[in-house]
Each structure stands twice: as C-alpha cells, then as structure tokens.
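This entry is retained here.
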Amino acid sequence: MTISCDVLVIGAGAAGLMCAMTAGQRGRRVRVVERANKPGKKILMSGGGRCNFTNTGTTPANFISANPHFCKSALARYTPADLIDLVDRHGIAWHEKELGQLFCDDSSKQIVRMLLDECADAGVHVDTGCDVHGVAREGEGFVVETARGRVAAASLVVASGGLSIPSLGGSGLGYALAKQFGHHVLPTRAGLVPLVLTGSHAERLDGLSGVALEVEATARGPSFRNAMLVTHRGLSGPAILQASSYWEPGQALSIDLLPGTDALDWLRAQRAARPASELRTVLAERMPRRFAQRLCEHWLGDRPLRQFDEPMLARAAAALSAWPVVASGTEGYRTAEVTLGGVDTDGLSSTTMMSRLVPGLFFIGEVVDVTGWLGGYNFQWAWASGRAAGQVA
C-alpha cells in the first residue's frame, strides 16, 4: 500500500519541523519521517539542554558558504524576532546569555514541544524510527521507500542534517539524495569542533585539562574573543570552536592570550613597576596560575622581569599575542556541532530552497552549504530555510 501526501519531509529536526508546520498551515497534507527514535534530538541536547534557539544579532556575515549571498533572502524573511514571537506565543520563558544568544529558562524540550504542537495543529503526521531506503522520481512527484512503507509525495523536502554527531541521527543521506538528482555536493568537514594537539604541543599542556581563560582566536577568517578550554586531547571552548570552522589542517592558529591588550606595552609597564616579580607571577593576575606557569616554562622564560632585556620582552610579547600552537586535527564529526560544506547552493533557489534541477525537490538546514557561527545562528538558519521551503512546498 502506498501512502499519499502533498509534502514529505525527511528529517524531524529544527528545519524539517519548521518546514512541515509551515506547509501544513497552508493546508498541505504533510508527513515527516525521522530515522532517530525521537524528533528534535539535536535541539534537545543543544545549549546544555536549554537550547540556544536563536541569536538576535544574526546577519549573513555570521555564516560560512561558498556563496555568502545565498542565505540573505531566507534570513531576511524569517528573523529572530519572528521566532521569538512564536516562542512567546507558546509561553516559553527565555533569557539572553551573551552576545545575543537566547536560551530557554527551563528546557530545550519546550522548543521541541512547540514545534510538535504546531505540526499537530496543522495536521502534520510525524513518523520516528523510520529510515529512508530509497527515493525515486515518478511523474511530477516522488516515491519514497521507508521502513513504514511506500510514500508518494508531490514535494520532497530533504532536512536530514549533516554528518555531525551521528549518535543524534546525523548521516550522509541528504548528500546522497542530492547527488542522485544531479546536484553538486561540496566537500564536507567538521565545524564548531575541538582541536587536537599531538607531540610536543600536547606534552607541554599535559595535566592542564579543565583550565580555561579568555583569548582571541583566529584561523584564516574573523577573530573570536571568548573562552578557551584546555582538554585532555587539545583545545576547546567557544573561541576555539568558532575558529575551528575556518581552520584547515596544516594552517597556523593564532591565539591572543591577552585579548584587548598591547602585550609589549603591558610587559614594559609591569617591568617598570615590579622588576623583582617573576613573569609567571605577573601573568597569573591575567590568567590561571597553572597556565601562566606552563607558558613561562616552555615558551616565555621563567625569570624576574628585570632580567628581560628589550629583545627578550618583545619575544615574550609576540608569544603572548600570537601563541604558537599547531593543531594536528579536530575531534571530528563525533563531537562537531555542525557540518561545513554540503549541497551546493548554486543548484538551489535562495528564495524557496527548491532545486533548480528537479521541481518539487527542496534542501534545507544543515545539509545545505550554509554554516553558522556558534551561538544560535545555525538554528536561525534552520528556521529561516525551513520557513522558506514550507511556504511553497
């Protein structure tokens, strides 16, 4: 038996559920199939269980894509304010944490419940634990073989996410479907992911796992000022996660350990005021003591400030403002929050997310080559792209 519907959405994440409820509200008969055992798994774990559901400062500049203009239309037509209105209508209390990041006061479960309630009100049917085994073009529509049987749909929306955190349902299905229908898929890699250190770099930081400090990290792209966390395998924390999306193997990573400070001027001032003080003692007032001590042992020299002549002070300042750390790789998709790359936007309409090659086929959310910064931007892309497709699918 074949089940018929107007719109079939593959993936019950943020983008898929937003698309489904939007299409359902237009009177379309909508079904959603999700391979995981529950919808919105990535929503549930985000923000430490409180879901950083948007960022009030969202602009196209907060996204990485081969075509930086592609995201503009959808983002302009469904803004953080629109999402906040929906959240408020459902009585979900929220707060701004930092840098425009909005979180639920209580639980990310409220966001999933909001989406499912909206879908239910719009008559959307959601199937979980339902793998997709194959997709074929039939006439002007699609026939999809699923674990629950065959589904025929006029429109097919691929919202299956990327490769990040496979334990939450991430897979390469969306990329395979894109290629099946003639779309180009740009190379993918882990984004917003901890960096791994090996060799002498790892040895020098051994035993400092858990130490955190404010830094400004840069890798090829913009600089990110936030916390850096030393882990047992390397470096993490918001500043490192942000920079990781721009970092590539073999590339230098610049970390300013005294952000907002001219390191050389500061060191000169400290030397003049406290010549008998050890450098590590002075640095411990600006960063964790154990980290300052390790810096001096391996990078800066461990002696009183008066013993630093001008060239030595300049070298120390250079190391503090551009700490020479070379990462050997990333933690990979297992812990990555997003997948960079994906379905080439050249093959999609920026207004509707519909394929330029196959009418009625849509790609939305993380599967598309649009990746946001850390801090709610990827959710805003999910809402905006899902809304754009749902208005026409």
The chain has a mean pLDDT of 96. The chain has 13 helices and 21 strands.
